Amino acid sequence: MVEGKLPADEQRLAAATKRAVQAAGGLKVCEDETKVSDSQISRCCSPNHRDSISVRDAVRIDAIGAGEAGHPHIINAMAGLLGGVFIMLPEPVTDDRCLQMSVIDLSCELGDVSRAISEALSGTSDAGTEVSPREAQAALDHLADLDRASAKLRHQLQRLADGKSD
After folding, report:
1. Burial of 4 from C-beta contacts in 10 A (0-12 / 13-18 / 19+)
2. Using one digit for the tens of pLDDT, what is the confidence trace for 135-165?
3. 3-state SS, residue 47
4. How far apart are CA 43 and CA 3, in angstroms?
C-alpha cells in the first residue's frame, strides 16, 4: 500500500537502501542473504513506504556491495540522519604512496564541494544566484565525502605519529 511521500530524511534512507540493494546484486541476492522477502526489501527502497531496513540487514546488504562507489550506502545514510558521517578505517599505511593517495582523495573531494557551491551560486543554476534545496543537498553530500577523506588521512597520520606503520 502506497503511503505517500516520506519526509526528506526518510526518502534519503530509502534511496540509499535502493543503491545498496543494487550494489549487492539486486533483490533476490539480498533476500537470499538476509532471509527478508524481496517484497519487504523493495518497500524499504521506496520513498512512498515507511518500512525501513533493520540495522542487521543493512550491515549485511552493505557488506555484499563492498567496493561499489558510495559504499556503505545504508550505513552512510543512517549516520547522516544522526548528523554524522561513517568512516571506513583505511588499510594500514605501508608506504608514502598511501599518504599521497589520501591527499589526492582529499583534494578531489574539496574540488567537488567547491564546484557544487560555485555552480549553485551561478546565475544559470536552479534558483538563479540563490542556492536551491537540491543544490544544498548535493553540496552536503560532497561535504560528507570530504569529511570521510579527511578522517581517513587523519587516521593514517595518527597511526604514523603513534609509531604504528604496519
Report:
1. exposed
2. 998 999 899 889 888 988 888 888 888 887 6
3. coil
4. 11
Distance (Å, whole) CA 126 – CA 24:
33
Determine phi and psi for 130, rounding to 5 degrees: -95, 155
All three cell numbers of 145: 565525502
Q: How confident is the model over 1-5, as a mean pLDDT?
A: 63
Rounded to an integer, what distance in angstroms lies between the CA atom of residue 88 and that of residue 151?
A: 9
Segments making up each domain of the chain, as ranges: 8-81, 96-161
Give the mean pLDDT of 120-134: 85
Q: How far are the Cα atoms of 72, 73, 107, 131, 153 from residue 40, in angstroms, in the given order?
A: 20, 18, 40, 37, 39
Peptide bond into 133 cis (omega under 30): no
Chain segment 22-74, per-residue pLDDT in tens: 999 999 999 999 999 999 999 999 999 999 999 999 999 999 988 777 789 99
Q: Is 72 exposed, middle or buried (0-12, 13-18, 19+ CB in 10 A)?
A: buried
Q: How many helices (H) and strands (E) does the chain have?
A: 7, 0
